[in-house]
Write a structure and sequence with these properties.
about 260 residues, binds cobalt (II) ion, binds 2-amino-4-trifluoromethylsulfanyl-butyric acid, Creatine Amidinohydrolase, three-stranded antiparallel sheet, alpha+beta
């Protein structure tokens, strides 16, 4: 029987395009860093990223008009889990934590990555959450190699978050990515679910890992704008995301930033 994800395996040419798209997406997160400060509006960050993606990178911001999403990046502050919509009256303040999620399309291929930023001095609890969420991503990344089951990735991320008494959001998951933003058939859960099919990784698959970790309970709700996802109990949430390639013997982080240290 052929492997169930065989049709998602990328050619060498496609992988090269994914490398390019990944590098560009990563560069947006580095470019915007000095502007992610108290007093900045999330719309100003959106505008700056949009202009950079379009004018400097000659690329397309994938979120804009994706299923009706109105902006070019997602900005998710504090108890916002994901898909926060940039707004001119949403102003960053000291102590906030924010996730900026960038997806660019270059030459028909996607690079999808997000990271947390800390606004000035943040609480010890917020700092711990941000660090544990990043570690959850890298626990997943470290497991990527041919033969690893997607179940194992979810289970190990879940275990690590639980060890810190945090919870894992279940409604959103990592995804296959390539010429499409979200590929059908490849889902990377960030929690333990023994009932899902046991699919193993094979070389040439490209996908994201993007755990969302909450200080409180795992439950979320979507606001009336139909996009903004928040924790039901209003507890802080943090997320980090990379686009990855399963290689012949391990992993390549396609959205690794120049200044980023692997943990
Ligand atoms: N970038 C998000 C992800 O990681 C998806 C955002 S969809 C949007 O999959 F429409 F909100 F942009
Ligand atoms: Co993604
Ligand atoms: Co993303």
């Amino acid at each position: 029987m052929p492997h169930p994800l065989q049709h998602l395996v990328k050619t060498t040419t496609e992988i090269q395009k994914m490398r390019t798209a990944g590098k560009l997406a990563a560069s947006v997160l580095s470019m915007i860093e000095p502007y992610v400060i108290a007093g900045a509006s999330t719309e100003a960050l959106n505008q700056r990223c949009h202009d950079y993606i379009v004018n400097d990178l000659d690329a397309i911001p994938a979120p804009l008009n994706y299923r009706g999403f109105p902006k070019s990046i997602c900005t998710s502050i504090n108890h916002v889990v994901c898909h926060g919509i940039p707004k001119s009256d949403k102003i960053l303040k000291e102590g906030d934590i924010i996730n900026i999620d960038v997806t660019v399309i270059k030459d028909g291929y996607h690079g999808d990555t997000s990271r947390m930023y800390k606004i000035g001095n943040i609480s010890t609890q917020a700092n711990r959450l941000v660090n544990v969420a990043r570690k959850c991503l890298f626990i997943g990344i470290d497991l990527v190699k041919p033969g690893t089951s997607l179940k194992t990735i979810g289970r190990e991320i879940d275990n690590y978050a639980k060890k810190h008494h945090y919870s894992n959001v279940r409604e959103y998951c990592g995804h296959g990515i390539g010429s499409e933003f979200h590929e059908e058939g490849l889902q990377v859960l960030h929690y333990d679910d023994s009932s899902i099919a046991d699919i193993t990784l094979i070389p040439g698959l490209t996908f994201t890992i993007e755990p969302m970790i909450n200080i409180g309970k795992r439950f979320t709700k979507t606001l009336s704008d139909d996009w903004t996802v928040v924790t039901k109990d209003k507890s802080l949430s943090a997320q980090w995301e990379h686009t990855l390639l399963c290689t012949d013997d391990g992993v390549e982080i396609l959205t690794l930033r120049d200044d980023e240290k692997i943990i």
